[in-house]
Amino acid sequence: MDIDRKLIDRLRAVPWFQEISLEHFEAIAQFTRMLDLAKDEILFREGDSEDYIYVVLKGRVAIEVNSPDRGKLRIFTAEALDVVGWSAVTPVVRQRTATTRAVVDSTLLSIDAAKLQQLCDDNCDLGYLIMSRVSSVIAGRLMGARMQLLDFYGKQDCEE
Amino acid sequence: MTDYQLSINTTVAISKPELNKLLDVLSGAGYKTIGPVAKNNSLVYEQIEDISDLPYGYETDQKAGRYRLYQNGGSEYFQATPGASTWKKYLTPPRTKLFGLVNVDNKWKEVPVSEIHPKYAFIGVRPCEIAAIKIQDTVLIREDYVDTLYKKIRDELIIIAVNCLHPADTCFCTSVGGSPEAEDGYDLRLTELDDLFLVNIGSQKGIDMVAQLEYAAANSHSLQIENEMMSEAKEKIKDVLKDYKQLPELLMNNLTHSAWEDVAAKCLSCGSCTSVCPTCFCWDVQDVTNLHGTETQRDKVWDSCFNPTFTAHAGGGCSRPTTTSRLRQRITHKFASWVEQHGGEGCVGCGRCIVWCPAKIDIREELNILQEAFK
Amino acid sequence: MTMSAVEDKMHVEENAMNPNWAVIKKIETETVDTSTLWLEFEDEEVRKDYKYSAGQFNMLYLPIYGESAISISSDPDQEGLIGHTIRFVGNVTRAVSRLNVGDRISVRGPFGTNWPVEESKGKDVIIFAGGIGLAPLRPAIYQIINNRKDYGKVTIVYGARCPSDLLYTGEYEEWRSHDIELMVTVDHADDTWDGLVGVVPMYFYRLRPNPENTVLWSCGPEIMMHFVLYEGLARKIPDNQIYLSYERNMKCGVGVCGHCQHGAYYICKDGPIFTYEQLEPYFNVEDL
Questions:
Q1: Given CB atoms, is A68 within the 8 Å cutoff of chain C?
Q2: Is the Cβ of C190 closer than 8 Å to some Cβ of chain A?
Q3: For residues A72-89, average pLDDT
Q4: Which residue of A153, A158, A159 to mutate against B (max B Cβ within 10 Å)?
Q5: In what order do the strands lie in the sheet with A52-58?
Q6: What are phi and psi of C247, to 5 degrees?
Q7: Touching check for C193 and chain A: CB below 8 Å?
Q8: Which of C85, C110, C135 is the last residue before a domain boundary?
Q9: What's the CATH number where A41 sits?
Q10: Three-class SS of residue C253?
Q11: C12 pLDDT exceeds 50?
C-alpha cells in the first residue's frame, strides 16, 4: 500500500504522538485519514457507536450534551492538537455520550479506534506509549471537569 | 524639702500620704489621674482623686477562670493584682469617632467635632503593663502609619509605675522576657514598703514632680528591703512557659498539626482573651446612623479575631470559620507573626487571658502542649 | 467621682480614615451584576497628586453602608478619571449599584502592592484571570500595551462562568491587535457560544513557556489561582516569578486594623499581590 507521507508528517506534528517510531507511524497512517468539517457540521452524535478517535488539526469543535430542558450545553471545546473521542480506545466501548460539532470550519485526523487498539495489543511498547498519552488526556479532562464542578465564580471576593 | 540633687534614676522615699500630694500636683497640672479602684468585686482602672480611692488592704486570688478580690486587713495600696481592666481603654478607646457626616441637600458634609484629648497620668502601672504600652507603641506609631489620637495621648502621658511585689500564680512575665521590676518606660516608679514608697525617677517630668513633694533620700536599709522583696517576687513567678524564643519557628512550621485541634477543644471562641489583653489592637470601622439616614458617624471600635465577622466575605462565609482556626490565629499572632511584623512578641505575661477565660484555658499550658507535639 | 473613658466624650481622630470625596462621572455597565464607575476627586490638589500602580486598590466608602476594597481598573499612565469595576454582591456594593452619574463617593487609597510591570520588561508575560479578577489586571495590560515592544510574548487567558459574565468584551480586539494572544473561555455555555469552553487553568497546556524568562500573573477566585499555580510550577516557572493577587477582609488599608492578616502578612499592605515565594509558607494551610 502506498504510504501517505503527508499524512505521516501530520501525525508526527502531533505532540501527543511524540517518540513514536517511523515504522509505527506508517502502520497508524494505514487507518488514519484527514477529515474536513464545515462550520456546524456534526462529527458524531450522542448514541453513535465509537468508531474513531480524532485529533483536531485546525479549527474548533465543541463537545455538547443535549438536555431536554436546557438545550445544548457545551462542556468542552477542542482546538488544534486536542484529542476528541478518546473513549473509543478504552477497553469498554460504549456509545458516544456526547455530540461533537464543528464551531468553525475544521480539519481533523480520524484514526480507526479498533485498528489502533489492535496495533497496541500487538505491539506492547507502542501500546504503552499510546495508552500513557490517552491517560494524560483523560487526566486533563478530569481535572477540567472537577474544576467546572467547583464552580469557582460562585462566591464573590471579600467585602464588608 | 532637702537640697538633695534630683536626677534621673535617683531613688527617694516619700510617706504614703504624700502620694496624695502627687495626685494634687498632677491634677493641678491638668492631668486626669487614673488608677486602680476596687469596684464590683474587681479591680478597675478609673479616675482617682485621692489615695482613699485606691484598693487599700485588698488582695486577689486568681487562677485560670477565677478572680477574687478581698480585704485582707493589710496596709498596702498596690497589693491587689489588676483585673480585666487595661490601660488600653484610655490609650485606644473601645469606641472612637473618626468623623461625622450630615446629609444636606443630598450631599454629605463633614461635621466639625471639638477635639477632646485628656492628658492622662496613670498611677500604678505594672511592669508588664509598661511592656504592653511599649508594644502598642511599635504597632501604632510606625514609620508608615501613625495613629494620631494614640500618639497625642501617649506623648502627654505620665506613667507612675509600681513594682510588682505580689505576683499571682497566673503571672508569667519572666517567661516572655519581662520582670516584676520596672526598668524603664516610666516617669516615676513606686516600690511600696510597709510605711513608705520608694520613688525612682525615670524622666525629667518625674524630677519636676518629685521636686514638689516632701521627700527624703532613700536610706540603704529601705533599698535593701526593696532588693530582697524584688528577688522574692521574681522567684515567686513560675517560669512555666518553655523556650518562648523558639515559638515563632515552631508554631509557623506546624500550622496544620492536629495538636491545634486539641488545644482548641475547650475554646468557646468568645473573645474574652482579646478584650482583656493589653496588647491586642484589632479594630473595626462602623457607621452609626440615625433612623432617617440623614446623619451618620464613622466609629472605630475594638474588634476580636474570635468574632465570626472578623474575616467575613461579601458573598457570605469567612476565612476562619472554625474555633481552631481562630485560636490558632490568636496564638500564632501573639507568639510568632507579631515578631515578624513588629520586632518582638505580642505577649507580656500578665496572665489576664488565663484569668478571664471562661473555659479556664491557660496559654502557658497550651503553648507547652504545642511545643511538645511539634518536636 | 470616677468616670471611665468610655463615658468620656468621644475622641475625634484625624487620620488616614477620613473621607476623600469623588464624583461619579461615568458608569459603564459590564455585566448584569458588574459595572465600572469612573471617578474624579472633587479636590483639585488631591486630583493632581493622586498616583497609583497597576494592581492596587482603593477603599470606597458610601455613608451609612460602609466601605469596600475595590481594585483600580484604569490605566495608571493616563491622567483623568479613575476606573473601578465593581461586582455588586455585598451590602456596600449593592448600595453602590444604585448610584448615578453625579453622585459622590469617598475614595481612600491607593493601597497595596502592584503587578511588577516595570520589573517584567524583557520577559514573556502570562496572565491568567478569572471573573472579576480581570479588573485589577487591566491596568497592567494597558501598561504593557503602552510599552509593548519592551515585553516578549504576552498571553492572556481569561475565563468567566458564562459568556454574559465576561468583562471588557469590547476591548479584546484592541488587545489582540497589540500582539497579545488572548484566550477567552467560559465554564458553561450553550450552542450560541463559539468560543472556548473549559476552566481557565486547563489552558495552560496550550502554552509552551520558557520558564526562566516568563512571569506569571494571576487574579481570580482563590481556587482558580491555585490550579493556575500548580500548572505554572509544573512547567518550572520559578517561585519568585509567579504573582498571585489575594484578597481578605480589608478594612483600614494600612496594616493596622488586623483584619486581613494572612500568616505574618497584612494583605492590604504586604499584598494584595504576592509572589508564590512569599506565600509558600502558608500555602494550603486551611482557614489561615
A1: no
A2: yes
A3: 89
A4: A158
A5: A32-37, A106-112, A52-58, A83-84
A6: -145, 135
A7: yes
A8: C110
A9: 2.60.120.10
A10: coil
A11: no
Crossing angle for the helix pair A124-150 and A113-122, to the nearest 10 degrees: 130
Least Cα separation, residue C64 to chain B (angstroms) = 6
Domain final residue pick, C226, C245, C264? C245
Residue C96 sits in the same domain as residue C135: no
Q: Indicate if C146 and C229 belong to the same structural domain.
A: yes
Does the distance separating the beta carbons of A155 and B317 come in below 8 Å?
Answer: yes
pLDDT the model gives residue B113: 67
Local confidence band at C13 (pLDDT 50, 70, 90 cut-offs): very low
Of chain B, the percentage scoring pLDDT greater than 90 comes to: 85
Domain count, chain C: 2
Contact predicate B177/B348, CB 8 Å? no
- Domain holding A124, by residue range, is 5-150
- For chain B, say whether C88 makes contact (Cβ under 8 Å): no
In chain C, which residue's Cα lies nearest the Cα of A100?
A: C191
B313/A155 Cβ within 8 A: yes
* C237 and C153 fall within a common domain: yes
Is the pLDDT at B316 greater than 80? The verdict is no
Asked if the C-beta of A103 comes within 8 angstroms of chain C's C-beta atoms, the answer is yes
What's the pLDDT band for B114 if we cut at 50, 70, 90?
Answer: low
Within-domain flag for C13: no
* Residue that the C-alpha cell 464607575 belongs to: C37
Structure confidence at residue A20 as a pLDDT band (50, 70, 90)? confident
Residue A25: inside a domain: yes
| Position B2 confidence tier, pLDDT thresholds 50, 70, 90 | low
- Residue A6 pLDDT: 84
The reply to whether A159 touches chain C by the CB within 8 Å rule is yes
How far B307 CA lies from chain A's nearest CA (Å)? 14
> Residue A90, SS3?
coil
Question: Among residues of chain C, what percentage have pLDDT more than 90?
Answer: 80
Mean pLDDT value of segment B238-255: 87
Are both C170 and C196 inside the same structural domain? yes
Cα–Cα distance measured from residue B14 to residue C124, given in angstroms and rounded to the nearest whole number: 75
Domain count along chain A: 1
Position A158 in a domain: no
Residue B3: per-residue pLDDT: 55
Amino acid at B291: L
Cβ of A40 under 8 Å from any chain C Cβ? Answer: no
Give me the residue from B118, B283, B310 closest to C8, CB to CB: B118
Name the residue of chain B whose CA is nearest to C64's CA.
Answer: B287
Any idea which of A48-52, B302-306, C91-95 has the lowest mean pLDDT? A48-52
Is C89 domain-assigned? yes
Asked whether residue B122 carries a pLDDT value surpassing 50, the answer given is yes
In a domain, A157, yes or no: no
What rounded mean pLDDT belongs to chain A?
87
Interface of C with A in 111-130 (CB under 8 A): 130
C235, three cell numbers: 512547567
Q: Residue C56: name the closest of C78, C41, C71, C37 by CA.
A: C71
Interchain contact C182–A (C-beta under 8 A): no
Residue A130 placed within a domain: yes
For residue B190, list its beta bridge partners: B162, B199
pLDDT tens column, C154-183: 999 999 999 999 999 999 999 999 999 999
Closest Cα in chain C, distance from residue B254 (Å): 10
Mean pLDDT within B345-372? 94
B284–C251 CB contact, under 8 Å: yes
Quick count: other Cβ atoms within 10 Å of Cβ C206? 15
The full DSSP string for B60-123 is EEEETTEEEEEE-S---SS-SPP-S--THHHHS-SEEEEEEEEEETTEEEEEP------EEEEE
What integer pLDDT is reported at residue C17 of this predicted model? Answer: 83
Kindly tell me the burial class for residue B221, based on how many C-beta atoms sit within 10 Å of its own C-beta (0-12, 13-18, 19 or more): exposed
Give the closest-approach CA distance of C123 to chain B in angstroms.
32
* C283 is a domain residue: no
Nearest neighbour of C191 by CB, restricted to A60, A64, A155: A64
